[in-house]
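Structure tokens
________________
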Amino acid sequence: MHTKEVNIGGVKIGGKNPIAIQSMTNTKTADVKATVKQILQLEEAGCEIIRCTVPDMESAQALVQIKKQIHIPLVADIHFDYRMAIAAMENGADKIRINPGNLGGAENLKKVVKIAKEREIPIRVGVNGGSLEADLLQTYGHTAKALSMSALRNVRYLEELGFEDIVVSIKASQVRRCVESYELFAKECTYPLHIGITEAGTIEDGSIKSALGLGILLYEGLGDTLRVSLTGDPVEEVHVAQKVLHFMGLRQFGIEFVSCPTCGRTNIDLIALANQAQKALAGIKKPIKVAIMGCVVNGPGEAKEADLGIAGGKGEGLLFRKGEILRKVPEDQLLSALVEEVKAYDPV
């Protein structure tokens, strides 16, 4: 889906731009030192846009100092109090996330839009299952239809004020409902979409649930930015987001590993070998595929699409490139031989 391009503090989303990875701090925003520390960790992991909650004036004022020490766009998360939206923009927010319908009326929304226009700051219309309007709930219940109509209604509020620098998110914790909400909305508008499954859960469950929902949306061409919402270290959100985009073939984040699930033919400790290889090669950003296979019977053939790989045998294994065997290697040297070959490999 071709969407309108929006500039968020120098990071352009929508149009033909790459899908950007977002996360959100879980520190107290007013604690500048802790918040900056976490954002810098997220930057190192690959986060490209960061969101901070702004529940009070102290947090809004802290954005000035936070902005000076980070290198990615900063989004202010606003709920209910329009004054926090204005203060966040005045203190350097590159984008604000609001639900236009819960800012206390049309006059308050006008004040927010006025500042956003003057400063050319985009607004993300953020709708979720917990903030649906009473009339929509009464008519449609907790459904994808209600969520998409809420988003559309709030977008129209901004358009009526002459504001179109808009990003939209429609989040639910149920995968099907969330996906259907975005699908319905995308039929009506071409604003860039920030996608994600809200309240997805802990690291394991949340990663799986997010991968399902995001995978469907991305396959359908929907999504210009994304966040994987996990109950855990936000750095894990970035890692999972990268893997989702990588495995969907939408962006490249270093080495892609493939490995067989093991079977009765396996004569080496493949599980340990695969984990060791992934750890040893973690810092290499070459856009290549590496295979770790359990047996020499089918290994090179099954992994022939891999740029490089190893296949274990009895006391030795094979090192191969694009399905062609390079040489036999003693088992205790397989890992080091693979690492050496990867470092020397030129993917161009």
Q: What stands out?
A: The mean pLDDT is 92. The first strand starts at residue 6 and ends at 8. The CA atoms of residues 260 and 336 lie 20 Å apart. DSSP finds twelve helices and 15 strands in the chain.
